[in-house]
Design goal:
Blueprint (H helix, E strand, L loop, with lengths): L3 E7 L2 E8 L5 E4 H4 L3 E13 L2 E15 L2 E10 L13 E4 H7 L2 E3 L4 E3 L11
Parallel strand pairs: 2-7, 3-6
Antiparallel strand pairs: 1-2, 3-7, 4-5, 5-6, 8-9
Length: 125
């Protein structure tokens, strides 16, 4: 299966977003997180991602729109997420946990997002 990218609009900015079912958590680059709501962790911790260890000192609340639909995700702030296959920097990695919350699926045949069942709102009892 190829990697699936799409654009997430956040405060008028378009984030090159990798939708990654192989990553439980979501990640955002330090540069993309500028101007967004950041929370400094009182006790930093390490995560393994991409074969490397990353020390997480901040989390970011990302509130935006995916194809016009509102979404929010809590992302761990990392220095870099690398580039996509076309050399464009990846700003946000949208992990499996967030994909499950918003019911965002991957269409493996066409290598694109399936938003047919995406939540448009939350009603919880």
């Amino acid at each position: 299966m190829g990697r699936v990218y799409d654009s997430l609009e956040v405060n008028g900015r378009k984030f090159n977003t990798l939708f990654d079912t192989g990553s439980v958590r979501s990640y955002i680059t330090q540069s993309a997180a500028v101007g967004l709501l950041l929370y400094h962790l009182p006790i930093p911790y390490e995560v393994g991602r991409g074969g490397k260890r990353h020390r997480i000192k901040q989390v970011c609340l990302v509130v935006g729109r995916l194809h016009g639909n509102p979404v929010d995700v809590t992302a761990l702030v990392v220095k870099d997420l690398g580039d996509d296959e076309w050399g464009k920097p990846i700003n946000l990695l949208f992990g499996a946990e967030a994909m499950e919350v918003w019911n965002v699926k991957i269409d493996p045949k066409d290598h694109k997002l399936d938003l047919s069942l995406m939540r448009k709102e939350f009603v919880e009892y």
